[in-house]
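Discussion board: Methods & Data

I've been asked by a reviewer to show the raw model output for two of the constructs in my manuscript, not just the figures. I'm not sure how much to include, so I'm pasting the format here to get opinions. Each protein appears as its amino acid sequence followed by a line of discrete structure tokens. Is this the kind of thing reviewers expect to see in a supplement, or should I convert it first? Here is construct A:
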Amino acid sequence: MKKTALVTGGSRGIGAAVVRKLCLDGFRVAINYNLSEQRANDLCSELCSEGFEVIALKCDVSSPDEVKRLFAEINKAFGGIDVLVNNAGISLWGLFDETTDAQWNEVIDINLKGTFNCCREALAYMLSEKQGRIINISSVWGQTGASCEAVYSASKAGIIGLTKALAKEYAPSNITVNCVSPGVIETDMMNRFSTEEKEAICEDIPFGRMGTPEEVASAVSFFASEQACYITGQVLGVNGGLV
């Protein structure tokens, strides 16, 4: 019987690569989006035309009520959830002393609270089945901190702490909770940098280049597989040797 995966923020970038990879791995996949409706629907149509079972569902993960509705819709369509990939997130670039309360709240609400909301709902399903996989997407900056990205770094560090705590709490129920920590990946988040700035960033990466969304998706695929059934509470860096 096919298993079901939910990928939050699954319409583009790392999320879309994860959706494609999990489809190839044999999962039925729910693509969550909030603002990128066209991209989500295009990806869904593309994958369905290739014979995969995919649905696209709108949800603001920072809203507990919307997340409850999201999981109810997935349960109705696919009958529960086996793998949750918490990928939805936003970044914030700027000096910490100029950060407003509204900016702090937005980043924390989507990146960290959104992960909390989705984990809580997923666990309700997984506990009843005594099995499940939760894969949270953090960031290298959640491990090391980044100048001018203090709020983003804090939100991603929180995800790592949450991952480790949930791994201990739910291992007795055969539920693994792991974290993938991407480094500098070629996605829309890098569009604010010029070509010259990107080249300078790559000089600090031992591999000499940015990573691809597909390389991150491969790490997610591993944690979702049976090969990772005895691995939990881990942070897997996909960063080209940056850390």
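Construct B, same format:
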Amino acid sequence: MRIVLLRHGEPDVPEITRLRASEIHYWIKSYNAAGLKAGHGASPEAIEIANHCNAVVCSNLPRSFESALALGIKEVNYREPILREMELPYFGFPSPKLSPHIWAALFRTLWFLGNSSNGESLGEGRLRASNATARLKEIAENTESVLLVGHGLVNSFIAKELLSNGWRGPVSPGKKYWEFGIYEYTS
């Protein structure tokens, strides 16, 4: 059996240079609603590996589905909310204006430290990734190979879960857009 974890392409997020901590939820909302940025296609290697999978699974976020289409996938078999990216917490406190990417890095660090204001906790995220892994394994058992066009952090959590269950593959499926990791299980 084979599971390919591929990160989506670059999303077309409106350019916001600076905002306050209390405004980050607007940026998160626009990021989650964004499709793909034009002209940022997948590598030939990613396209080839994607088209050799028997089933294709995406999250329910537009950048995931549009990435599958950009890979030349004719049919997405499953679009599952359980596979969306880990929710980014946000906090509404007085602050200077900073780049949304700085806020995202800060809030993600706080999330790993146990702060999950306005989002799922780290424990909830791990449980969701565990359930998502079980779902992908079920699909792989029925189809022999499955491609998840997913997201950076959730793909990483799923990879750890696969590796801890006897699957073979890289420690990280890749953090950059269109990067992927191939995980195989032989009984």
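Answer (T.O., handling editor elsewhere):
This is acceptable in a supplement if you add a one-line summary per construct. For B, something like: The chain has one domain: 2-184.
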